[in-house]
Structure formats: structure tokens, C-alpha cells
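The step that takes the researchers longest sounds almost clerical: writing a folded protein down as plain text. The outcome of that step, for a single protein, is printed below.
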Amino acid sequence: MSILRSRNMSVLLVLLFLLCGSTPLLAANETHHGPSELVFVAQLMLLLLVGRLIGEAMLRIGQPAVTGQLIAGLVLGPSVLGLIWPEAQHFIFPADKDQKAMLDAISQFGILVLLLLTGMETDLKLVRESGKASIAASLAGIILPFLCGVALGEFLPDSMLPDPSKRLITSLFLGTALSIASVKIVATIIREMNFMRRTVGQVILASAIIDDTVGWMITAVIFGLALQDHLDALTLAKSIIGTLVFMAASLTIGRRLVFFIIRWVNDNFVSDFAVITAILLIMGIMAMITDLIGVHTVLGAFVAGILIGESPILTRHIEEELRGLITAFFMPVFFGTAGLTANLTILQNMDLLLLTIGLIAIASFGKFGGAFIGGKLAGLTQRESLALGCGMNARGSTEVIVATIGLSMGALSQNLYTMIVTMAVATTMAMPPTLRWALNRLPLRKEEKQRLEREEMEARGFLPNLERLLLAVDESNNAKFASRIAGMVAGNNAMPTTIIHIKTNKSKKAGRTSDEKEKEKALEAAETVKAFAEPPEREKPDENENVKLDVTTIVANSPRQDKIAEEAEKGYDLLIIGLAKTVTHRNEFHEDLTKLASEFAGPLAVVDARQTHRDDPLKSKLSILVPVNGTEPSRRAAETAIALARASKTSLTALHVATRATKDKKRSRKYDEAILKDIVKLADTYQIEIHTAVRNNVEPDEAILKEAARRKHNFIVMGVARRPGDKLFFGDTAAAILEKAESSILFVAT
């Protein structure tokens, strides 16, 4: 504790030193006319530093960091620093309009990128899966507090309003500020408590997502009305119709256009962070469109985030880079600036203090009561409805954004703004402990436990973490079988797939060298991938049945290893190869296949169709055998085999070959059982029928071939590792299987 106190004291001394050291510089700067860069940089540095420190402190006591950033603004503003050291506060944050405009510009752009990030974190699929419970809870949780806020606005004295003639606009702003939950705060607490995938956690989060989506549509309309000199039915109709048309166009044409832009930039630009630039441009253009149709830019930024978040090739790496920029810079600056604008000293006035307490009570009662009633109407239990009401009561960032824009547009007075900020801080700090208390009272259901176990295994798995698939094929039957396998793998996670169709010498001799005919062959492969990407029938109706797979085709000359290298730079997680010439007469991989594989550094899958699969690659059934030995490559193969069994509605066999000689047979048996138990558990989570077998003191290739013959398996999925050398080689066991097996083979190589 003494060490912690000394560290805190050191931090305070550093802050005081920075403050005192900067004061004379800022005072000297006042003699110059116009805004000062020195003042601007000092403001940014203080907001970042104090926001980070108080945000860190908030996290350590179980509060969201955004609350600390908002409090940092209150500390640096007239509420604290201005009260105890007004000269320093005025020096650092002068009232000069030109000086304030510099910080306000960063803050206003921060609003857009915050809404962009909120949209990117909006999971519409989760909303669809959560069913009527989240919709009912969200709508009831919006309507009740909205009406309470509007009613409060109608009874406020004229002295509290910026313009008494526009009381309705102020009332609508109050209703909006009281009705929207902060999805970011809700998601943070639910994730922290490991409730993100619990049923009630999904309902709470989906309700918050609906809150945000509906809330920002309402907010955009109200902002549009506030910009008008008068309020009438025609103005209201224009705002509503403009919003609906924009949403409809964005979710149809806009979605395809955004997907195309992100893919095109990712695949064609070689400069750093080109995709992030494209994302910011998309956000800016959509924000300007909403402004032109008479609603606020926040709607455009939010919808842009939704579309960008759904982009099929938006990698986690790019998303994390963008989130890092927004979280590290724009969030502390915006929320710090919002705190600077509020002045809590007005609460010394007993009337304003009582009004603020009443506002917090109305906001909490309206949101909690609406969400609780909605949950009960949707069929949730009393405990689940209680947790739902607690979770939806956090306002946080959302209300601060609404209040900031309302103040800048003249729809809110300074006092009302401060009251809303106080309400946002109070409800946000009250939500985590109450939600934790409510969630801890909820028992874990059996079906929830099974689903959570499956998702936990998926999080550590190979296939669920793949984002983009590359398939290299020609026009052979082996290529058709590889396309079938690729479709099953891609459909497991709706992976965007690029097909490189390779022209063969056979096609050239047959006179089929025209680009149109080669493109037809590539499109046939694409149709095969899409056809086999359709998932099998599910027992649970809430699972998504329709997989919309994004497939791109490219035609390349034979063999184009440079084309593989060029595509690999665009970011692929797995390359599947299926060519007519897989094996040479010496039972080695063909030179063409080796050339293609040499240019891809990531995971590789090689398909060799035999017997029925070569004769009838698209209709022949799969009977799968997967050898396992406890290594990472064999587990990847097991995951792949389970995904194929799931897609083809068939069973599989997991074979463990124990070749070690040991005197401790009991220990050896436990080791064998542990390896197979892991694979069986993985198969059980997907309700796949699995058989197990153990073979002791026999060569692996011999055991695999005998097991395949005994159970009549026609497809062996084998995990291997690439060996160094000029030729593609997966080890002696794989070479023996390649030489002797009558069954088709899929090598999954790390």
C-alpha cells in the first residue's frame, strides 16, 4: 500500500509540475493575437494524460474507462480546477473562441469516429438471433424514458431553456438523452463478467444495439428539426422520410459498395494503412450525405460503421488498429472536452441540484422499468428481466454525445447540459455493480453450458479463426473435389473465398484458351464452392441457415506461382490446392503443386481425390478417418474433419497410433485416452457421431491404412507439417500414405 501511495503521489507531483511549468508559458502566449498552437498542444496532452490516469483508476475499481475520461474533463474544467485554481484553469483552457475552436474541431471529428466505432461493434446478427425478447425490451426501454424526458421538458421553467419558443425541441432532446443506453458500457461489463454469450447477456447486448440504432435514427431526425427555424408536419415528414430512404439505400446498395471498396483497396494498394484511410473516407462521405438530406452527420457515421463492421474481409488486425487510434486519442479528447464544458458548481444551487437528482431518478426509473416490463412481456424470468433492467440503465458515452451536439446547436442550455452529463456519469457508475449483482443471481442452463463449451473450444480452434480462403484449382475432377472441400470449409465460418483457376496444357491443346471459356470454368468452381458452403439442417431454429459466401474468381496461366505470391500478400489464412497432377510416378508431389505451395507461407491444404471421389467428385459420399497424435497439426486436421463431417452429415473415426515403448502402460493408456477425449468432446459440441480407435506398437502409416480398410473409409484427413527443402514434403508417414492409400487424402499442413 505504501508503494501504491508513493506512486500516486509521484503522479500528482508530475501533474502539478506540468501545470505550474506550463502556466507562465501560456500566460506569455496571451500577449499574441489569435489561437496558439502551444496552448492547443498543452490542452491535448493534459486531456490525454489525465484521461488515461483516471480511466486506469476507474478500471481498477470496476468502472468503465470512459467514465474516467469524462471525469478528467470535469477535473480540468471549471468544476474542480476552476474552483480551486481559477487562474491556471483559465490559462490552460482560455475562453477565447478561436482557441476553443481548435479543440472543438478535434472533439467534433471525435464524435464521428466514436459513432463509426459504435457501428462497427453493432452485431445485427446477434439482434436477429436474440429474438423478440431484445426487441420488446429495447422498445419498451426507449418509449417509457422518452415520454418521461419529454414530459420533464414540458414542465421546466423558461429560465432553464435556451429558447422558450422552441421548448418542444428541448423536450425531444431530453427524451432522447434519457432513452438511449450506451452499448459500449453494456458490452464492457457483460464481457468482463463472461456473460457475452450467455442468453441473458445476448438479450441485454442486443437490446442495447437496438437502442443505439433506433436512438441514433431518432436523434438524427431531432437534430434535423432543430436546424429548422420552425417545426411543422412537413418538416417532420421530410426528416423521417429522408432518414428511412438513407437507411434503405445504405443497407442494400451501400452495403455492396462498401464491401467492394474495402476489398478493392485491400487487394490493390501496397501502402500502409490504406484500408483505414478508405474506412475514414466512407465514414466522411456518408456523414456528408446525411447532412445534405437534412439529418445530422452522426447517423451517416453510425451506419457507415455498421456496414464496415459487416465487411467480409475486414481483418481483426485492421479493426484493432482503427480501434486503437480512436480509443487512445479521440475518446479521451472528446469526453475530456465534454467534461470541460460542464460546470458542476451550478449544483450549489439547491433548485438545480434537486432538478438534477430528479432527472437521474426519472432516467433510472424510466429505463429500468421499461426494460423490465419489456423482458417480462417477451417471456424472460423475473431474475432475467431484473438483470436486463440493470444492464440497460447505463447512459455513458451516448448521452454525452447527444448533449454535446444539443448544446452546440442551441437546443440545450448550459445548465441542462451539465445536468445531463451528471446523469450520464451517475447512471454509468451505478450500472456495473447493479448488473454484476443481478447476473450473479442467474443460474447456468444446461443448453447454455453446452453452447458456451462449444464456443470456448472454437475460440482456441483453427477453423473458426480463419477469415479468408484462397483456392487454386484447374478443370480436373480433383479440382472439383477440392472445390467441394473448400466450400465445406468456407461455409463453416462464411469465409470470403478467392479462386485462382489455372489454365492447363490440356485445355490449351483442346483449343479452349479463350478468356471467356476459362472464366466459365472459374465460375463453375465458384458455384461448387457456394453450393457446398450451405450448412446442414440445424436442430436449433435460431441458427443462421443461409450462408452468403463472397467468392471471387481469377484466371491464371499454368503454373502461376507468382500469382499465388501476389494474392498471398492480400491476406489469406488458408490455401487449398486441387490440381490434376498431384503425385508423380515416384509418389512425390508434382512440381506444379510444389511451385504453388512454395509461395504461400500460411497454412496449406492439399487435396488428392481417388476412386469414387475422382470419378464422381461432387456426389460421392464421404466416410472420414482422421489420425490424431496430440500435436497441433493433428488437432487442426481433426477440426477440419469435424467441419467436413458436419457439412456432409456423416460420422467419422479418430485413430490414435501409439508407437512409443514404455513400461508404464497405465500412464500410456491415460495419455491415449486424453488425446481422444479432446477430439470426442470437440465432435460432441457439434453433435457429430464419432468413433475412436487406438493402435499400439505399429507403424503409423500401416495403422492408418488398416483402419481405413477395416471401416471402409474413403477419405483420410491428416495433419502434417512442412519439412524444409526444395520439394514439398510432409514427412515419411505422409509420403507412405500418399503412395499406398486407396482412399482420397486431405493433407492439412502448418
